[in-house]
Amino acid sequence: MSAQGSNLNNLVEHVIGVDAAARVGQLMKVPPVFSIWECGWVSRKEIAQALNMLLFADLLQRVPSGRQYTEEVAAQGGKVMHDHGALRTVRWADHGALPPGEYAFTRILEPLGYRLNGLFPLDRIGMTGRSYAHQDCPDQIAQFFVSELHPEKFSTQFQATVTRVLSTSQDPLTPQAQAMLHELARDGRLPFAAALELLPQLQACFGRQHAIPALQDYDMLLTESAEMAWIATEGNAFNHVTDRVDDVERVARQQSALGRPMKKAIEVSKNGRIKQTAFVADPVLRQFRGDHGELVERTVPGSFYEFISRQQYFDAEPKINRLDLGFDAGNAQGIFKMTAAAS
Predict the structure, then answer these.
(1) Could you report the per-residue pLDDT of 63-99, keeping only the tens digit for each?
(2) For residues 62 and 302, is the Cβ–Cβ distance under 8 A?
(3) Which CATH number is associated with domain 7-339?
(4) The whole model's pTM is what?
């Protein structure tokens, strides 16, 4: 069977339309495993891949530098291998109707087939990162890097400001969607009609769920945490997507030669197998509430586009070579600076 008319194709088309679905399929590598499907039923890996494609397409709409790079790859006959997407959360009790911290997303990721793949203390920025890899196709379906910010590590004024910003949060997941996630976790698949209903709600979780923040609150958060200030305007949107390339250093040289705003240094993991760099976050215009409730606008850092190279290593117990799907806390904290650079 061809992928045309596949479960994956139909899922993505249902959410963003035929033309946009075709375009993201031209830009992203789709693993060949999705060329075979079961009529009437959608597997957890198909929903996971569809969600990744939707979030990738959404980021390209918000990040012109990433869109330009990806379209150039396609124009040269290539496709991007989406390695992972990253998002930020806040572990804080006063979080409105939205569950605090990473649980707002593990309740989604685990039914989709993801499992914890690594824990990364990000102490310099008061956060904890966790990576989630897909059980069925770990090296082919993009991972999620979910970070939690810990307001208790900052001042009491900062904590009060976090409460003001986040206490208006709404939960995009309806009780029906949560029931479908339970069924997906139990059975590993859903009826096609249920998957069509669930997918747009999952996509909606990756956005800002709280009200427009006050400019005064944004400025206060920015004095102590560029990451929390970013969350105030962007919420749980994908902070970045990542192209897995053969040679990060070569890509960095090429993009720098084109005058693109690149990270100055390449991050290298302690084991030397993982190298990362990124574009500086594209600026975006966001609304804030002024001192008298009026709406004001300011240009702030948006999301960005990352590049990663992964080497293989020899796994002694099964005696096979594996792709290193890990992350590195030092790399992550260096990459996080991409949204601080434009502040």
Answers:
(1) 999 999 999 999 999 999 999 999 999 999 999 999 9
(2) yes
(3) 3.10.180.50
(4) 0.94
